[in-house]
Design goal:
- The chain has 288 residues and is α/β, with parallel strands linked by helices.
- The protein has two domains: 160 residues, Rossmann fold, CATH 3.40.50; 93 residues, no CATH class.
- It is 51% helix and 11% strand.
- The protein has an eight-stranded mixed sheet with strand order 3-2-1-4-5-6-7-8, sandwiched between helices.
- Bound molecules: NADP nicotinamide-adenine-dinucleotide phosphate.
Length: 288
């Protein structure tokens, strides 16, 4: 089989995947097919990657590819699945870049191999964790295919579908959470700073953070050990740590409650949308 791949939805995730495929020579341009709702993005990609196959519709892409990455928003996914469903073959391999549409709902459209994954934009710089769930119809060769691709620019973590909601806070949502936390840290420091600019404060934080992550990972140090080593009793770090220890649990509990609740709401909305699309759709009951 020709090593082809199609990407539907060229937004943050789809365009990251496309760039990585070409940058790391994972696929030849002529073996990549792309489709997107708005045409502007496709036009600029045509100029950048002249040999790439630009499809006029999601249906055209589904007819041309056996390996299809779906990188659209969760609430747009049901409609895309309905469009492509008549062209999906038993051997078509679907890779869905969101876990907010449940596997059981995707199965209404395709009874073959489905991998649900939560990528992270950290992978733009070859890092981060890709949370991955394969259904039982993903054969070994397809597992290897997916894990080799994603493993080229991220760490692939196989996980149960039911665990992704919580775990994705540590991976996919992390850059956003981290940016907000650091922003507040910089703002608090800025309110107290006379001579050091916000840009300088931000740079110090980022360099410290990169180093701290490496220190913990490379020296296999736990968070507790690091706190003990850095914060001497009675010292300055110790005083700050005590405040974080007291106040952060409420903040993190509230943030996790909010994000996991919204995840469940979106999953429910997508499920309802799939129910309404598939009810009365004669083709859907014929899914291979
Ligand atoms: N961003 C992240 O960090 C991240 C991390 C993990 C998982 N995800 C998941 O990955 C998916 C994509 O996220 P994203 O951040 O890349 O979203 P995004 O930037 O909004 O991109 C979505 C893309 O899908 C296209 N699209 C929407 N409906 C379509 C349709 N019917 N047919 C063809 N293309 C369609 C959009 O086209 P237009 O150009 O017309 O808007 C857009 O280019 C989402 O399900 C998200 O939950 C995202």
């Amino acid at each position: 089989m020709k090593k082809n791949i199609g990407i539907i939805g060229i937004g943050n995730v789809g365009s990251m995947m496309l760039r990585k495929f070409i940058e790391l020579s994972l696929f030849k341009e002529e073996n990549i097919y792309i489709a997107n709702r708005s045409e502007e993005k496709l036009k600029s990609l045509r100029e950048k990657y002249p040999s790439i196959n630009i499809c006029k519709s999601n249906m055209e892409l589904a007819q041309s590819c056996n390996n299809i990455l779906l990188c659209v928003e969760p609430l747009n996914l049901p409609k895309v699945l309905l469009e492509i469903q008549p062209y999906l073959k038993k051997e078509t391999y679907l890779m869905v870049s969101t876990s907010m549409v449940a596997h059981k709902d995707i199965c209404n459209f395709h009874k073959g191999g489905i991998t649900i994954f939560m990528p992270t934009l950290i992978s733009m710089v070859n890092g981060g964790v890709t949370l991955t769930f394969h259904n039982e119809l993903v054969k070994d060769n397809k597992r290897t295919f997916f894990e080799n691709i994603m493993g080229s620019f991220s760490e692939v973590k196989i996980i149960g579908e039911e665990d992704i909601n919580l775990a994705q806070n540590m991976t996919a949502s992390f850059p956003g959470f981290f940016a907000e936390i650091m922003l507040e840290f910089v703002k608090a420091a800025s309110r107290r700073s006379t001579n050091v600019s916000d840009n300088e404060l931000e740079h110090m934080l980022l360099v410290s953070l990169l180093g701290a992550s490496r220190l913990l990972l490379e020296k296999n140090m736990s968070f507790e050990e690091t706190i003990n080593r850095v914060s001497t009793k009675g010292g300055i770090t110790y005083e700050g740590v005590k405040v974080f220890e007291e106040m952060l649990p409420n903040v993190f509990d509230a943030a996790l409650n909010a994000s996991t609740k919204r995840y469940d709401e979106i999953t429910k909305l997508a499920s309802e949308s799939i129910d309404s699309l598939t009810n009365g759709c004669s083709q859907c009951s014929k899914a291979v």
